[in-house]
């Protein structure tokens, strides 16, 4: 009976056409899983001399700050030049706000104190676009060896423009001066005031989704173009001056300033389940490591996991974690072995790599669940994976017509983790082409509606699989970078802070600098965050998760279907609620009738609706064009609802007798 499609027609206005009647079962078929949801000339980009006589350059320092940071910025001023120095313009600007505390930090050394006063003053300042000083601090500068300076700067006003700068100046006196600088940074207040933490506005935007888990350090960010440039947990932990960074997989440097410890503490701050990946011997450039050559990489993966959950008394990596202030283990249940082991020639070696990692990691950590990242049964892996990580980038139409995709998978207990998915293009034959070939710059309403249709299948799929033979987790790629405000010249190229979760997009009203298109949020590096229609869909689904799936009339599973839904039940503090999620990709409104099998149902309920023209997007120019609208719906044990054209609806009905 669960497979039956029960439709009926009702005498509603003819303009709405046929009415889809949804009959809901009172008996839950299954619980809803709780896991649903970083050359020296280039280094001076954004660095500008201050004062007519100042010169700045980046050199391979003969006495570097650390082996990880071999370069330094050298400031040279002639005699009697007055205040001279340098400024940083940020990533297309810096947003300063009155009263907020900005932490400025740098290391300096003066190669020699001869022929000059025994002490000079170093001035660190925040300046507005007109040159006025918003905040400043003076520090005596006397050291010939590397010395850290850290000050807190609080602007006295909020400037109208974001074309502001961070400046460092000094007076070399009658002899002039040469000063070497390294590891310069300027942090605004961070999320939950974590040292080296997340940009507060971006982190809060993601926190507002209430994500259940966080996958790190990524997909492609994990792999490296070669084994030497792979992500390595131990190179991302500890003092920033000891993190060497590396060339990232998308052609820009990653500083790894956002490392494994920051990822894990952020998971705690947002109450997210960590889904951590370990490198498994395949690099994006095509290199595969197999056989005994894998042994050191397996050992590194074991150390990585021990850093997270090991006992400090018996494990050096765990002792390192404890020394950072976290003696207790972090939460960890899921570990992903590699990323996208179907790319290029990865599939030809994945069996050897999978078995080597899986067998060793399972023997060491039998309590953990390990995920494979190749295509299911292509090739067939031994040992059989418990969970596969599936990634889908497709058109809005594909998502809308593949809500039933997993229903056709074997019912053998295999579980699937939808690790990445997004509507990226309207062109199915060139999904990753440019905008002129159909690529979406920002998520559109149609794209978000298609994703919502796909997500209703995440809740419904267990219905036809009879209880928990399949457990599907869901995730939507988040497009954000966690960054310092300034650019630093401490490396051979500018230290662009790394992107977490693969993609990012930087936007201004003048132009867009894009690394990955169509992500759920975008941000202006000078202080604005833009929520897409897909962000709001993710938020509505996340904030309205049910505890149990309620079988109901099945939607049309054909490719021509435009109306898809799921029904769940939640036991809230205020009573039992039935949650109905509807995706309507049709360009016309569609009438529906719901039949609830409960003795009592609220006469009025609240629905949140996202709708608009299919091609509409939230952009920096129009950031609030698409947003959920709350409406009151007349409900009862049987009630009618009209799903607006190109829309997503989440309707919550209070019931009794459930």
UniProtKB/TrEMBL annotation:
Signal peptide: 1-17
GO biological process: L-arabinose metabolic process
UniProt keyword annotations, A-Z: Glycoprotein, Hydrolase, Signal
Reactions this protein catalyses: Hydrolysis of terminal non-reducing alpha-L-arabinofuranoside residues in alpha-L-arabinosides
GO molecular function: alpha-L-arabinofuranosidase activity
Top enzyme category: hydrolase
InterPro entries: Alpha-L-AF_C, ASD1_cat, GH, Glyco_hydro_b, Glycosyl_Hydrolase_51
SMART domains on file: Alpha-L-AF_C
Segments crossing the lipid bilayer: none
Domain Alpha-L-arabinofuranosidase C-terminal: 419-647
Pathway in which this enzyme or protein is active: Glycan metabolism; L-arabinan degradation
EC number: 3.2.1.55
PANTHER family: ALPHA-L-ARABINOFURANOSIDASE 1
Family: Belongs to the glycosyl hydrolase 51 family.
Descriptive protein name: non-reducing end alpha-L-arabinofuranosidase
Organism, scientific name: Mycena citricolor
